[in-house]
């Protein structure tokens, strides 16, 4: 868990607002959100339903546009980017993990992971090599030639994380990735996400489960579209005596 | 009497001296409940008085050794066999605090809940990090396997406890919001000026559960003005 210091954030949200509807039916889904996520950092976003968690994530990923404010991904303001730049950024810099995995059923695990690279113009052979390497690095090499329906939910979600981070993408946005999994499997998916962030990725995890949020470096609490609080990064070694923490 | 039985359990593996018991107790439980040597000797004295341990000889370094007696073994068996009593819950400061915060003047109960939630989730983050380390130690086949497993179980208990607390806090907040919405809907809207109680009228819903009607805050003490 590297503490970000002089590094540039991978994701910056600045004074982000999102208003749905107008006049009497106007709903302020987000009210002035500021958030920086650094390489190596996993940030969990918690809050009751309707607090704006998912809206925040879709805007951070360029899937929705804010009413005002900026979203900066790897130094590019995606709110000001043209459609082509935005599409390229979504392919090259941002990975998504959804609750229902969203793997393509007709493709094997390796083909699913290779797909975003192929869309990016990388040769099929190289894309496959990268996909196999990504799967192997995550301990999923044995799943490479399986189709989604031949894998468990937990395995599919791990493949989805591999797909989200294949190539040199460094930002993974995960919306309730453990929602469809039992708690043991959910835990192993979180452990993998944690591991990818320790290896240098930046992650934003939306969850309502404190147990999964606890894997994050920082937990941000949303209420009515605003950040009301966040946990301070603390050093586990200070929690219990030194002897215990070294174990 | 967990220290008492904890020491008996360690002594069942063979005679030990005081500071050795302290070290072993802490390595099993990851120093979650640190003992001082004084506590260990006080407990040993009581165990000896009750005939559950006996002093017997010294080791090479001259430490007085304690050994478990037959009565001590029986006591230990009984402890393992009997569930820990949960029928008279220990006093829980958080539950008492929230109970007192309901309708308390000048207290925004939602802030009380949030500051606790942050603290509880921070503790969970720490425990989760320690758990990840403990699992790594176990998987790497570290030597002290029995202690590592014991420590992992203790850590997971702490995670389950803090998780239960965080979920309960979410639940409290949701319930208070529902109750105050219901109170508003049934005509006790706090936007209306305070009314002189009408003796002929039924008490409004908020009063029925003993909640105050402070102006600016609603029945449950959820101050709307503090919401962003």
Automatic annotation (TrEMBL), chain A:
Keywords: ATP-binding, Nucleotide-binding, Transport. Pfam families: ABC_tran. The lineage of its organism: Bacteria, Bacillati, Actinomycetota, Actinomycetes, Kitasatosporales. Residues 11-244 form the ABC transporter domain. GO terms for molecular function: ATP binding. It comes from Streptomyces ficellus. Gene3D superfamilies: P-loop containing nucleotide triphosphate hydrolases. InterPro entries: AAA+_ATPase, ABC_transporter-like_ATP-bd, ABC_transporter-like_CS, ABC_transpr_LolD-like, MacB-like_ATP-bd, P-loop_NTPase. This is ABC transporter ATP-binding protein. The keyword ATP-binding applies. CDD domains: ABC_MJ0796_LolCDE_FtsE.
From TrEMBL, chain B:
It holds the Pfam family PadR. Signal peptide: none annotated. Residues 183-228 are annotated as: Disordered. Residues 7-77 form the Transcription regulator PadR N-terminal domain. Residues 91-176 form the Transcription regulator PadR C-terminal domain. This is PadR family transcriptional regulator.
